[in-house]
Amino acid sequence: MQFFSFFLSLGLLLTVIISNGLDSPEPRLRESADFPVGVAINPKRLAQTDYAQVVGREFSSITAENVMKPQYIWAAERQYDFSLGDSLLEFAQAHNQQVHGHTLAWHLMQPDWLENTIDSYDSATLENLLRDYIQATVKHYRGKVVSWDVVNEAVSSGGKGWRNSVYHQKLGDDYVARCHQYAREADPDVLLFYNDYDVIASSEKLATILAMVDDFQSRNIPIDGIGLQMHIRLDFSLDKFQYALDEIVKRNLKVHLSEVDIRTNPDGELSTLTEEAAQQQQELLAAIVQRYQQLPAENKFAITFWGLRDNESWLTKHTGHPQWPLLFNENFSKKPMYQGFLDGLDANQTQLD
Ligand code: 9MR
């Protein structure tokens, strides 16, 4: 009898150990970090159950990869279509996620009707149209999105001065400041970001952006944060990154790592993601997250990945090669890079202890 109850207890113990092992929840990104962790999505993909589950489970912030851009919303002069953005918002609300608005003004990917007419507008007409677009959109999403990228990529690609875009040509040097004012008039609470790429790689671009911030702050032009896009490669400079973070923090602004992806195949020599490249990617993300984590709490806005799965990334088309730049592979399996994110948070814990 005793012999029998010994095996019964052993069996129970094993059952408890095994089922605990299965039940014990794996760490989720959204619960592991004390700042929002975001992903850029296409709301049409939410119809796919696996996609929706992973987005809902792992992320606490969502950016529309495309559907909240003027190309989708600005249907005609003073006519707006918010339907796709609204569907994304509905998902976010159901999953207790914040939404970051991207983007109110961008020189690229304008709606066709605007592309065709923009040259014919005089400055005042274009300014009024843009103001009305910004204000209608910000008002529509007022209280629903926490933040907006107001003007995207307004600095020249070389980094010196403003980009010679049609907006700059027609509206002049101060148009970015006025777009920020228009957005603020439409929503006194929404956070306003300036968002750009290559800000770490190009010291000149960083200097231009910091000078813009200094100018805005000296004139009380509203700005709450900087979006560092972070479309980066494995040779990313952590020293330059740290310098940029420090300069932004000095100006009391929030930092959004707004479009993170790490390309592993810049010259297209790989036909599959090697273990070595995956590990380098993991280590680089860990180092980035560790430095981000060390920012004062009020300067941390969010880290957002520019897509969910490698096979969805814009980079395949853009570079002509697979880059495996994201956290998940096409089967929704976590890559070593995912662990890199958690490692970055943990490394910081160890350091603080
Ligand atoms: O990833 C986006 C891609 O699907 C679009 O075709 C493209 C044009 O609208 O924009 C891509 O996202 C860009 C973002 O809006 C701004 N920073 C650079 C991103 C990559 O091009």
What does the model show?
With 353 residues, this protein is an alpha/beta fold. The chain has one domain (2-352): TIM Barrel (Alpha-Beta Barrel). It is 46% helix and 16% strand. The chain has 14 helices and 11 strands. The chain has helices at residues 2-23, 29-32, 49-58, 70-73, 83-94, 112-117, 123-140, 166-171, 175-186, 203-218, 238-250, 275-293, 315-319, 336-352; strands at residues 37-41, 61-64, 74-76, 79-80, 98-106, 147-152, 191-196, 225-228, 231-233, 254-263, 300-305. An 8-stranded parallel barrel has the order 1-2-5-6-7-8-10-11, surrounded by 5 helices. Helix 12 (275-293) packs parallel to helix 14 (336-352). The longest helix is centred in the first third of the chain and has 22 residues, at 2-23. The model is unreliable at 15-21 (pLDDT under 50).
Give me some keywords for this one.
16% strand; alpha/beta; 8-stranded parallel beta barrel; 14 helices; 353 residues; binds ligand 9MR; two-stranded antiparallel sheet; TIM Barrel
Secondary-structure map:
Layout: H1 2-23, H2 29-32, E1 37-41, H3 49-58, E2 61-64, H4 70-73, E3 74-76, E4 79-80, H5 83-94, E5 98-106, H6 112-117, H7 123-140, E6 147-152, H8 166-171, H9 175-186, E7 191-196, H10 203-218, E8 225-228, E9 231-233, H11 238-250, E10 254-263, H12 275-293, E11 300-305, H13 315-319, H14 336-352
Helix pairs in contact: 7-9, 11-12, 12-14
This protein binds ligand 9MR.
